[in-house]
UniProtKB/TrEMBL annotation, chain A:
Keywords: Cell inner membrane, Cell membrane, Ion transport, Membrane, Transmembrane, Transmembrane helix, Transport. GO terms for biological process: alkanesulfonate transmembrane transport; monoatomic ion transport. PANTHER family: ALKANE SULFONATE ABC TRANSPORTER-RELATED, MEMBRANE SUBUNIT, NITRATE IMPORT PERMEASE PROTEIN NRTB. It is a multi-pass membrane protein. Residues 84-264 form the ABC transmembrane type-1 domain. SUPFAM superfamilies: MetI-like (SSF161098). GO terms for molecular function: nitrate transmembrane transporter activity. Belongs to the binding-protein-dependent transport system permease family. This is Nitrate/nitrite transport system permease protein. It comes from the Bacteria. The chain crosses the membrane at residues 6-26, 88-110, 149-167, 187-206, 213-235, 247-271. InterPro entries: MetI-like, MetI-like_sf, NtrB.
UniProtKB/TrEMBL annotation, chain B:
It is a peripheral membrane protein. SMART domains: AAA. NCBIfam families: ntrCD. It comes from Marinobacterium lutimaris. It is found in: Cell membrane. This is Nitrate/nitrite transport system ATP-binding protein. SUPFAM superfamilies: P-loop containing nucleoside triphosphate hydrolases (SSF52540). One of its GO terms (cellular component) is plasma membrane. Belongs to the ABC transporter superfamily. CDD domains: ABC_NrtD_SsuB_transporters. It holds the Pfam family ABC_tran. The lineage of its organism: Bacteria, Pseudomonadati, Pseudomonadota, Gammaproteobacteria, Oceanospirillales. GO terms for molecular function: ATP binding; ATP hydrolysis activity; nitrate transmembrane transporter activity. Keywords: ATP-binding, Cell membrane, Membrane, Nucleotide-binding, Transport.
Amino acid sequence: MASLNVKAVIVSLLILLVGLGVWEALNQPPAASAEMTEYERLMGGADQEARVPPPSQVLSHAFDELSDPFYDAGPNDKGIGIQLAYSLYRVLTGFIAAALVAIPLGFLIGMSPLMYKALNPFIQVLRPISPLAWMPLALFVIKDSEQSAIFVIFICSIWPMLINTAFGVANVRKDWIRVAQTHELGALKTAFLVILPAAAPTILTGMRISIGIAWLVIVAAEMLVGGTGIGYYVWNEWNNLDLNSVIFSILMIGLIGMLLDLVLGSLAKLVKYEE
Amino acid sequence: MSNRFLSIEGLSKSYPSKSGELVVFEDVNIGIDKGEFVCIIGHSGCGKSTILNVLAGLDTPSSGNVIMDGKEVSGPSLDRGVVFQNYSLLPWLTTLQNVAFGVKARWPKWSKDKVNEHSRRFLEMVGLGHSLQKKPSELSGGMRQRVSIARAFATSPKLLLLDEPFGALDALTRGIIQEELIKIWAETHQTVFMITHDVDEAILLADRILLMTNGPQARVAESVKISIPRPRSRAEIIETPAYYKIRNYLVNFLVARSGNLSGSSGSAASETREVDPTLLSSEADTTTSKEPAPPRPRAVNNY
């Protein structure tokens, strides 16, 4: 198995090198074939075509940004660390609020066939709504762009957690419920000592899906509400035509998204059990 | 009958079906004394699991009632411990935690040390003292069932209900655990009600074996006394002449008479006959196997 891992790392590195190499090669400014005229020199060279910056430029820019991630030079110029922190704060606030609602509600739905049937139509209608469609209504009702962004995260993270919790709770093995019954456990003890640990892996899967969606949505939400955050940063750098920063922030979005998934993945491992 | 430790009186269970009422079993009367080990045998569908679930309080009968220790049984209780066929261990808990789960439920005021000490003692009784920290998924089927048995015995219920506890185990493992069950039963003297499909297992373990006719409309036709002296072991019991006599009698019932007797209701037929096969003459024994009608063994005391 170790040799397979080593091989995989080598192949990954090769793909990375080839990809970066092609990207670098395709995006070189053309060598000036003739002496530039005075006019051409004044206009910034003979290169009339906009070009994606090559990886060498992006990487050196990334190094500059990451060596001072928390600087704050006014509303339009903040370090990448500050922007990511804003986004993470919104995602985590919305996500935790959603978990606090979705998990108890999912428990109720999972334990009561009546509530399942009664609430199912609402869930089915509300779930497919793009979270950004809520934004205007949220802005109107909440009257605060910051909290509206958090609300959008809340509404998009709630569904996978709600559905997975209900499913996990409804499908706890009957045998385990019987164990609780024959040991005279009350409703609350049954919920915490038997149903919760039994459904925990399914609940965690829902939380993992939710945080992934929340991280996707926050970028779009911040592009709309503006001000701060990684989504705003990407759009702002596009307006500044600073493609180095755009590409750099895309990479950072991917990296943080991966880290969030890793954290929930390791939490899921803690509650996992084998039958 | 009412002065016995456990008495099941006029129990029946029926379900509504397309062709009217489907009566699984009816007019089941069973009395069990304190400390008695009773096995119940019958073909699938005769409702023995339902009877056990009613005793456990997990199911309700259509009519009749169950009285244990002077009190009517309604709903599950720690007074009646259950061992299920599929072990029913909580897979996220270790062996020790699974037993402690039961002990904590039984004695909520015990300290953690006392709970663990008590749990450990019962796990050692079933030979699992070395696997306390293992999860059920790391244990074999036989070991899992031992944990389940330890959990049930550790809560010292007044009545222990075993629902085909060894049904899913291979024959060799089953034999070993049967002897462990004998050992732990001898130490604790629990009253046990056990479902089994295995005639040899029933003879080895039971004081009395209840024989059920086939469903629907099943009933407890006979109560067979196992007079083989204790302590019994698998190796010695097969040396006893009584063993084969009992065994033949039981097999004969299951193969031939359980079907013939089924569905025949009426006041006379619904009584449970007490039988001791060792007191039957061999002649009566062989003729009964050919007769389609209910046999008339010599040693019968209807009560």
